[in-house]
Amino acid sequence: MKILIVLVIVIGLIVSCGDKSEPTSTPEKELNPKDTVAPLSSNTKEDTTLIKEWEFEVISVSSDEVDILIRKKGVQGVYQTFKNIVVDNVDLAKIRRLDLNFDNYPDLMIQETADSAGIIYSYWFYDPDRIEFRVPNKGECIKMINPKLDIKNKQLITTQNEKNGAYSSFYYGSDGAGYFGVKTIWVERNEDGSKTITTSVFQKDWSTKTTVERKE
Predict the structure, then answer these.
(1) Mean pLDDT of 95-108
(2) Of residues 167 and 33, more confidently modeled
(3) How many CA atoms lie within 13 A of 45 on its CB side?
(4) Residue 79, φ and ψ in degrees, nearest 5
(5) pLDDT recorded at residue 58
(6) pLDDT, tens digit (0-9, with 9 covering 90-100), for 167-183
(7) CA 172, CA 86: separation in Å to the nearest integer?
């Protein structure tokens, strides 16, 4: 039963991304982040190298929607626009610049919403070939919730709060283009105060390789 629950959650976290925009034009190689697991909190160090090439502006267009304007330094006018991004709080809608897919190019993310499950972000990958930021393709898109970056192992870890103190963590690997499942850890609190921890390890196609359950 727990295996089924884990699989249902995994399917729910692989979401398709809506279309948000496109453009044209040459950045330099950027950043090799520190060898650490870095929570994407307000004080997480961002890639200041990106500021040399690009400028970002978040425009409030309604009480719960923003546009993101991207300007490339040296190019006149707005270079790229992501329109009508739905957010809970326009005051919290600030661009973050972090390498989310471990290709040494900083990507973009913005806080979308926060609820009992955690903080959810919208995000866009930088494409050095097309010289633009783009929406992840369907196969690359995951639900970016309470994310952490494990730079050493090139993994993105998302953690979702569940009912009754339970939570689930999802580990995603990346080949630079997109994400693939590595493992999930489901932690459930029992009435006697113990915890049941279920770990499922995945193949790249998301088929389950092994599932192990233990009590603590």
Answers:
(1) 86
(2) 167
(3) 12
(4) -85, -35
(5) 92
(6) 888 888 877 666 778 88
(7) 25
Confidence band of 162 (pLDDT split at 50, 70, 90): confident
**Which pLDDT score, from 0 to 100, does residue 74 have?**
83
> 58: how many CB neighbours lie within 10 A of its CB?
16
Give φ, ψ of 92 to 5 degrees.
-95, -5
For the sheet with 179-189, list strands across it.
37-39, 148-150, 155-161, 167-174, 179-189, 195-202, 208-215
Q: Shortest CA distance to 209 belongs to which of 179, 173, 186, 181?
A: 181
- Look at strands 144-145 and 148-150 and give their pairing: unpaired
What distance separates the 2 farthest-apart alpha carbons in the chain?
65
- Which stretches of the chain are DSSP H helices? 2-13, 49-53
Split into its structural domains, the chain has a count of: 1
Coil, strand or helix: which one is 40?
coil
Residue 45: pLDDT band with limits 50, 70, 90: low
What is the domain range of residue 111?
2-215
Q: And the tokens for 136? A: 């992840």
Token pair recorded at residue 102: 């471990």
Q: Quick one: DSSP state of residue 30?
A: -
